[in-house]
Specification:
The protein has 317 residues and is mostly helical. It is built from eight helices and six strands, in the order H-H-H-E-E-E-E-H-E-E-H-H-H-H. The chain has a domain of 221 residues: f41 fragment of flagellin, N-terminal domain (Up-down Bundle). The two termini are 28 Å apart.
Length: 317
């Protein structure tokens, strides 16, 4: 086959251009840290990255939900622990009152019981980010008003209408993060202070059981009714047991939510690591390849220059 100068020049241009293209791509990889710029660079890698981006976005949203849920639940658990302390203190005071102290001490105990009742109302209206913790969906309204009555209607008997907050923390995984106020503060049954109910609807303007009990204890102390004060020991103990039970159950839910959050955190981290392996370059390797390609490119230019140096004048000498 006859080889002409134009064929040699075209081949050299083609080879130099290929070298330049590889050099340009490596320069992009080292400057941007990415393996591909266009889908055509690595169709399979690009497809994987798109899937990773989708999964990471979902995972980060679930993680955000989980973090918010954990914060809500930690705040609720702190409020329940405060309520535990209030009811336990009331039990201690009732035991003291039943041991027959003098009238001055009974007055002090009564005053503290009244203060504890006010503290209990504040706990019932605890908030997280401006939202009431125990008011179901009606987060903008207090659970208990300043007079100690329920300020809202709350549904618990009908599961379809139960006002529970659920956070989406994964595919087909929803976690209830709130506790309805009546499960803690209760309602008063037909038997009065001896008949607490914790699984019935709260009705606006009705008095919660715990408030009723504390007011009854205050009245018994004021009347120096030792018989009723003795009964109050058992009543407040039963109320404390219920608060403790609700706190323990909620604490178990909180622990589960913490585990879910940690699992999501690990999942997002692993997805980001996989995505990094898929699309990020090894800079040390990329710089080495870049230097090699630079040398190849310079060499190709040098060879090209030497080959195309002869001209017509060289043959006329």
């Amino acid at each position: 086959m006859r080889v002409t100068n134009i064929m040699m020049i075209n081949n050299m241009k083609y080879n130099v251009n290929n070298n330049m293209s590889r050099l340009e791509r490596l320069q992009y990889e080292t400057s941007q840290g990415k393996k591909f710029r266009y889908p055509s660079d690595d169709p399979i890698g690009v497809s994987r990255s798109l899937k990773f981006y989708t999964d990471i976005a979902k995972g980060e949203q679930h993680l955000k939900n989980a973090n918010d849920a954990v914060s809500w639940m930690n705040t609720t658990e702190a409020a329940l622990n405060e309520l535990n302390a209030v009811v336990l203190r009331a039990h201690e005071l009732t035991v003291q009152a039943a041991n027959g102290p003098n009238l001055e001490e009974l007055d002090k105990i009564q005053t503290e019981i009244i203060e504890l009742k006010e503290s209990m109302i504040q706990i019932a209206n605890s908030t997280y980010s401006g939202r009431r913790l125990f008011s179901g969906f009606q987060t903008d309204r207090d659970l208990i008003d300043k007079d100690g009555n329920y300020n809202i209607n709350l549904e618990i008997e009908d599961p379809a209408k139960r006002e529970v907050f659920e956070y989406n923390t994964g595919v087909a995984e929803r976690v209830v993060v709130n506790t309805l106020g009546m499960t803690v503060f209760g309602t008063v049954g037909a038997g009065g202070v001896d008949d607490p109910i914790y699984d019935t609807n709260a009705v606006k303007d009705e008095k919660p059981y715990l408030i009723t009990l504390f007011e009854s204890m205050s009245t018994n102390l004021e009347n120096r009714d030792q018989g009723e004060i003795q009964k109050d020991i058992g009543r407040i103990k039963n109320a404390y047991d219920n608060v403790l039970k609700v706190t323990a159950e909620f604490g178990a839910r909180t622990n589960r939510m913490e585990l879910t959050k940690n699992k999501l955190d690990d999942s997002v981290f692993n997805l980001k690591s996989l995505m990094s392996d898929n699309e990020n370059v090894d800079l040390a390797e990329a710089f080495t390849r870049l230097l090699t390609e630079e040398n190849v490119y310079r060499a190709s230019l040098g060879v090209t220059g030497r080959i195309i140096q002869p001209s017509l004048m060289d043959f006329l000498r």
